């Protein structure tokens, strides 16, 4: 699978997505700084979110429209006011996407309704992402799939039946290139809730590329995901958590994003394939294995004992497995201390 020139798959380095979300803090200048920081950090893609508060919810400050959970990062906000703080103005999308393209960064977005899809199509978005909270919005899935572009779907909260319905809807409506992201829809998420062993199961079950949309702190979960076959990693990204912002608490800073890019690639390189025996790079080290050496000066006819034959480094003599077989045999010539043991040195 390819997204805007980048190959994605088990034989390719992990595709790293920096999620801007609302970390622009309502400043276009900051948004453009985030683009440049993402490029310098080595990320391959930048993701936006395309919605308005009006298309997301109702402007009410009561009941379920008010965030009353004291454990929530957004406690005390209404849903409407939260989305007003977090949304990326639609007129910013083009300059952000243009700047990303200039710098070689894939830039795409998460649409939250059909008007957002139409708008992103007008900007020639290279692919689309469906957020976890919309992964059961089948009409939206169908509309995005109909673009024929690669589709990335976060799977937070969805059970297997729901995911099957989502995947079938995507494939039946024109999506040939599908990526599912294991996701835990807590902000921040705990490693204990990440259940990364789902990744290879999801790949087998739905026969598609699988990755991780990660809301945990640090990069540990993402690196572990790569070892389990994740080919795409998405992490929220900010210039500095100290600057605040709706998603800053669980976002990576530039140095951390660089660490994620480097370490995820290193983890992928380390996977290799099933292999036993020395690698090409190890062959020169075989000489440093232990082997059997004469450890005392000996005369022809002397008997090999534990006092004059030992397994030591380097590895030019017979293998240590022959030690017991050689005990008690007599040598057929004079040998000096430090001579590697050979079969030809023994009487037959």
Description:
The protein is of the alpha/beta class and 348 residues long. It has 2 domains: 12-51 and 87-271, Aldolase class I (TIM Barrel); 280-345, Antifreeze-like/N-acetylneuraminic acid synthase C-terminal domain (Type Iii Antifreeze Protein Isoform Hplc 12, Alpha-Beta Complex). It is 31% helix and 15% strand. The strands form 3 sheets. The chain has an 8-stranded parallel β-sheet with strand order 5-4-3-10-9-8-7-6. A two-stranded antiparallel ribbon has the order 1-2. The longest helix is centred in the C-terminal third of the chain and has 18 residues, at 254-271. The chain is elongated.
Short description:
This protein is α/β, with parallel strands linked by helices and 348 residues long. It is built from eleven helices and twelve strands.
Task: List the keywords.
single chain; 348 residues; alpha/beta; TIM Barrel; Type Iii Antifreeze Protein Isoform Hplc 12; 2 domains; eight-stranded parallel β-sheet; two-stranded antiparallel ribbon; 11 helices; 12 strands; 15% strand; elongated
Query: What is the 3D shape?
Result: elongated
Write down the secondary-structure element order: EEEHEHHHEHEHEHEHEHEHEEH
Q: Determine the mean pLDDT.
A: 95
Count of extended strands: 12
State which percent range the strand residues make up: 15-25%
State the fourth-level CATH superfamily of the largest domain: Aldolase class I
What is the secondary structure topology, with strand pairs?
Layout lengths: L1 E2 L2 E2 L7 E5 L8 H14 L3 E6 L2 H4 L22 H8 L3 H13 L3 E6 L2 H9 L5 E3 L7 H8 L5 E4 L5 H13 L5 E6 L14 H9 L2 E6 L5 H8 L4 E5 L17 H18 L19 E4 L14 E4 L10 H4 L22
Parallel strand pairs: 3-4, 3-10, 4-5, 6-7, 7-8, 8-9, 9-10
Antiparallel strand pairs: 1-2, 11-12
Helix pairs in contact: 1-4, 1-10, 6-7, 9-10
